[in-house]
């Protein structure tokens, strides 16, 4: 279940005082602002733009494009889970303090494809749990 980002909000998440999780993006924040703040805090961040996405196929295609998944991404739920538990595709030179996935237009996607949104949210949650105790955790903000 996705909840509100607890106080102190994004700052707490990026500083490590708020545990990594799958949270709703506060309505006062935007994906570009959040990804910029994450970069300043030495987190790797990516925005998943879901405007106009209404199907599983379109969702997985958008993941492949926006998140720059590797060629081996099979465009299915298992492959999404694999990419989110093997972040080698996301790593760059240097060390990241964490990884942040921010979605845009999540509510519209959830309304258009509720079953697919629940599945994606479960996969996000499992990936967050997988990285929770790592030196560089994963967090997801659904906006």
Automatic annotation (TrEMBL):
It comes from Streptomyces eurocidicus. The lineage of its organism: Bacteria, Bacillati, Actinomycetota, Actinomycetes, Kitasatosporales. This is Barstar (barnase inhibitor) domain-containing protein. InterPro entries: Barstar, Barstar-like_sf. Gene3D superfamilies: Barstar-like (3.30.370.10). Transmembrane segments: none annotated. Belongs to the barstar family. Residues 44-142 form the Barstar (barnase inhibitor) domain.
